């Protein structure tokens, strides 16, 4: 056997990553709120090939959500103000967990809250469910006490994460950071110091679209969260900032997201420091996109003579002037 | 249930719906603003009238670079009137929007756009579906430019379609504007079931009626209404009653006026029995702008006729995940919620077709 043959017989590059104790066959996962509770996309994508599945936000009690209109398309993206409509924890545990079990991929449940107790109660219950491997705190909801979100105030965020951490022993504790802050590293540090074992970023950017004929906001809620390719460059920057300022030195993995739609987008996030990659709004256009991205990543690794995707994580080289 | 679940996590293939690459067979302008796009698919799951497809309105090179603006387009295209009422992009003009913004032409639609299926033909395993759409935004502007042979990504068939009860004898197909297309598909199904139908179509004016009208050969109906011969319905032996807002075709006025007169006549000639204060054997099927559907539902409630409506709501996914296309629902019969109570249902997966009595609108 000559060296050429050996080279051609090198195993396909490994896409497996670890997020704490979670082992993912590849970094691709769903972003909360864009993929339903479980198997809604079952007819359109092979969900068993996803690296992990992140559910819609599950609150303590069912929520109807906001009035219509809840979405509007904008340039290269969309705004949403769904209002965390969901069936509530009880129905989720009863009706959806058995479906999630059949996917055979690590399950992460997104948890919103309007008080510390809301988060703690739901997270503690989920930590008891063997199928659930990760709990992702959605800290961007407005706090009922003062209308401020936990995610924009490092002191409040620390208090919240520490309180949840006391009740979550088994699951990875992921804090989904809000981008609506002047320096995302500040809230990232607060979350990690309080016990977060993983950070996911970014959530949507607070934004508004105006109906110029009615001279009112298009969305019934007034404002909404901007997602899609429009936010990708900001999300890449924020991922990199959190990686270099906080995550790398603490050994905390990052789930990067924000406008990921192609394997090229995914490579950018990996180089910037993301270990996991969540696809959100793009799922509305094609639920199978995560699998297409995984295939693209494999080809990219092969072309770069890399055998393991972990070689890409945080491997961004310093900027330099054009040659 | 376990079998069903396993099947649903399998890749696209044997499922009742999926993502398909279609080829443009034909793209014909049928009136001032409307096009009939015929798509050929190697295979496409069984579908029913009232179901819809999500079309990716950009070419492979489109990427995610464009998109923008209004809400008017990414509801299931049922309604030219609604588009104008809610015109976000180009104001309340009555004719085709002037595409004066050069950026507009460059921008691509980001999200898919939902369209009712207007017709379906089988051809030895292969399938052709017709989409009749009005050019109202970026997505439909792109569709207007499609040429034979171009590839189009289609997700479908989506949603729950119209129901044809066994006891149906006479279907009244009420379509307004781009709510007319699903009625053409439904006419075929009613015909195949061996039942009768009368089509009631409404538009703002003559040149916005997306049907092939032969004014020289009005179908004989004897129903007492001015009836026109619209090939799309006449092919199945069904007469068509046209109403236009300005009277430039058919009767001047709203389609609900013609419908009311017709049902009143039906009741007076006692062809159909009244059972539980309902006109047995008659069903109104309605699709169009929300105000028109509400008005139709009101007429039906007053006159005791069952009415199925196909709703339009802005939606991103069409697959039950984005939770944007909500409608207030109060249930019917055994499922009826307590007085004053309602919950949200999704237009995309719980509908788009609902019994009008189920809705709290």
Summarize the structure.
Chain A has 323 residues and is of the alpha/beta class. Helices cover 32% and strands 19% of the residues of chain A.
Instruction: Please summarize the sheet with the most strands of chain A.
Output: 8 strands, parallel
Largest interface (CB < 8 Å): A-B, 50 and 52 residues
The end-to-end span of chain A amounts to 41 Å
Quaternary structure: heterodimer
Adjacency order of strands in the biggest sheet of chain B? 4-3-7-1-2-6-5
Low-confidence stretches of chain B: 1-13, 61-71, 78-99, 216-223
Summed over residues and divided by their number, the pLDDT of chain A gives a mean of: 94
From the helix content, strand content and strand pairing of chain B, which structural class follows?
A: alpha/beta
Q: DSSP helix count of chain A? A: 9
Q: What is the molecular shape of chain B?
A: globular
Rg of chain B: 20 Å
Overall, the morphology of chain A is: globular
Query: What order do the SSEs of chain A take from the amino end to the carboxyl end, as H and E?
Result: HEEEEEEHEHEHEHEEEEEHEHEHH
List the uncertain runs of chain A. Answer: 1-6
Compute the gyration radius of chain A: what is it?
A: 19 Å
Helical content of chain A, roughly? 25-40%
CATH topology of chain A: TIM Barrel
Q: Strand percentage of chain B, roughly?
A: 25-35%
